[in-house]
């Protein structure tokens, strides 16, 4: 039995001035994984490699156990994609979109599409170019659900959406994975969305893998440490990642197991944002 929806093994891609270097991670079936990292970290490149929109220089990508290049056509039936901007033709209506997109999928379900369009309150006769961003996202999702995609790959789907639509969108993702067979890979800068719905996280910085694993484990492994300037000893400085001077003194990230030694400092739980910000500044773990 294949337990991973997606597996990347030692993926590399060289661009002039940028290298995605030896990225490995796996997304177990039935879970949501967030893909995070600062601008230019390599998130979209990773997604494009998974979708075989770019040719990798090294490594192997398996989708439901099948090689993503050798079995590209079969795999595409199982993957639903939502990008940060819509890739349908502006002058199409929603009906035209269904007609065109359904041709690519063997298992297209017209009833599911209609149900999603109703649920999302999408106007059938409006043109794609006239839909709001939130509506465009919902239309891409409706298409993904209508061909019974078992893996959703979303590149910054919630950026620019208002909080109410984001909330609805996250609920839909949670509902989608409920049966334990479907999975989501979701790149985002809005890490609070991940704290709400994701179980796993993969963090890339400057093309390098910083962390992949459970969110609980990541949050459990780090603490935010704050203190007065006079308490910042050389030993403490060495243990802090992403040290920042503040009005009160300093703050930064520290491994949870080390944090208890520094009694004069305030130790708080770290958020995913704290971890991404401090590690992006401070380099590696
Ligand atoms: N086709 C390409 N040719 C050359 N360089 C590229 C190409 N695509 C991406 N890059 C470079 O690869 C790096 C990573 O870009 P990528 O879009 O993967 O980052 P990202 O993590 O998705 O960033 P963002 O959060 O800003 O969307 C950047 O330096 C970018 O300029």
TrEMBL record:
This chain belongs to the protein called ABC-2 type transport system ATP-binding protein
Top-rank taxon of the source lineage equals Bacteria
Alphabetized, the UniProt keywords read: ATP-binding, Nucleotide-binding, Transport
Show the Gene3D superfamilies listed in the entry. P-loop containing nucleotide triphosphate hydrolases
Domain named ABC transporter: which ranges? 6-231
Q: Does the keyword Methyltransferase apply?
A: no
Which CDD domains does its entry note? ABC_DR_subfamily_A (cd03230)
Q: State one molecular function term (GO).
A: ATP binding
PANTHER family from the entry?
ABC TRANSPORTER ATP-BINDING COMPONENT (PTHR42939:SF3), ABC TRANSPORTER ATP-BINDING PROTEIN ALBC-RELATED (PTHR42939)
Source species of the chain = Anaerocolumna aminovalerica
